[in-house]
Amino acid sequence: MRDAGLGISYDDSRLLLWNLVLLVVLSLITFKAPAQNVIPLIDKQISLYKEAYPEIEFKLLLKKSDFEQLLPLTDSLGENLRNADYEHPEEARITLIEAQEYRIGLLLDNGNGSATLFHTPKARITGKPYTCLITYDLSLPDEDPLASTRFMYDIDEEALDSMPESFYLNNQDFLLYTFDHEIFHCIDAYTNGFLFPRTSDPLKACHDRARSELRTEIFSAMAHLSRKPNGKQFLLSLATARTLNLLGGDLEHYTSDTLHRIVESGELNTSNDIKILAEESMQFAENMTPSYTDHKEFHVAVWNVLEEFGVDGYAVLPEYSYFALETPLPEKVKALSGAINEALLAIRSD
Fold this sequence. Notes:
350 residues, mainly alpha, 55% helix, 4-stranded mixed beta sheet
């Protein structure tokens, strides 16, 4: 859609593997691209990233067999291979690589998008110091013009049929948006170092993942506007979907407020230069990322909002059930509740 941000120490390799599997489960609710005759389109995008970041080998994996040819990664990507996403000690290096191999395989099995960065100081084939492995599914039929809308909104057919067409997500826009979203994870790790610092605090790990998703959402939104300066309605529809996804427990991809600020901002640089765009998006993100305290207050507020809408928080967010005992800030509950009601109203009327 996708840890030293896993909320663990790396002393126990079994915990590392288990938490990576949990991350895969989270990834299943991010992005699954609708298929079209888009390989030339994706190839063009990759060429832009290769030109902007010549130090990185961008490797697109469309099916499981593409990945299996690279296994084990310690052979295909060279000696001293190291995962560049998750902070870890030397003694956990191989364990983390093996866990990432397992994770990437699962993502390909499920047709999910992801991007994983490796430091490859002795890459024999490419000779480049970094390799970004991108999983992407282009095999689904492309006859359905509502594939992206159906996936992001996750609503029944009756509700989808009654939704105003202005909220439909264009499949090609969504495909490019999600591709930019995934690949920016590699760029962010390459530019700024480990996305997920080591921690034993599960909420800190969640905060790190949410921070990473917010940063990549900002880049994807700016890249979208660089292609389509008048494409703000796409971002507004995506923000509506992100808001409604809270009812399913997807807190880490809640970026609706940020998407609205991007739409309303008249000062964003939407350059066609990938590297300039990435730098601008990172600067914008510095002022948008919630603090650890803000993130905790958000979690507590969501628990109360779920109850208001008849959603069992223990079912959708069991790992954060302890927030049910904490008192939320009334203004945060009111804001989230209002945003969800507004989103529900918007998709029910034109």
